[in-house]
Specification:
single chain, 139 residues, mainly alpha, elongated, two-stranded antiparallel sheet
Length: 139
């Protein structure tokens, strides 16, 4: 939440410093390395982690971009639903690419729109059957 401290607007989000620390450690960096990557003095990022210093909105955007997370994730530790769906779709498309399948054919909206309800249901049933078969092979 944004609060006013005198005439200055400041950010206070519970657990923000801990989220910063977790993101940094997950990425394998020190506080100084992150400070330099973001163009700050060597101790600035540590001050954000300790919540001794409040980042500007521009700084929040830089940090979110560096860690490749949304501002929602950075500030509230919640990923918006659209972003979860996007990440899931990207993982699926990456798996298809690794298998040598072209993404373009699966993303062709024109082709999908030619399919009726029954064809889409048939595709869903076939996919589920294939998943079951693969699971049996793994057992």
């Amino acid at each position: 939440m944004w609060y006013f401290l005198g005439d200055r607007e400041v950010l206070f989000v519970e657990g923000f410093g801990l989220r910063l620390e977790n993101l940094r450690e997950k990425a394998g960096y020190t506080q100084k390395e992150i400070s330099f990557k973001l163009g700050f003095s060597k101790n600035t990022y540590g001050k954000y982690e300790r919540e001794d210093l409040e980042p500007s909105i521009e700084t929040l955007i830089k940090i979110a971009d560096l860690f490749q997370v949304s501002l929602d994730t950075l500030l509230r530790d919640e990923e918006p639903a659209y972003l979860k769906d996007y990440r899931s779709m990207k993982e699926i498309l990456d798996l298809l690419e690794e298998a040598g399948l072209k993404k373009q054919s699966l993303l062709d909206v024109t082709s999908w729109s030619t399919l009726g309800k029954k064809e889409l249901q048939d595709l869903s049933h076939y996919f589920n059957w294939q998943v079951q078969q693969a699971a049996k092979k793994q057992d």
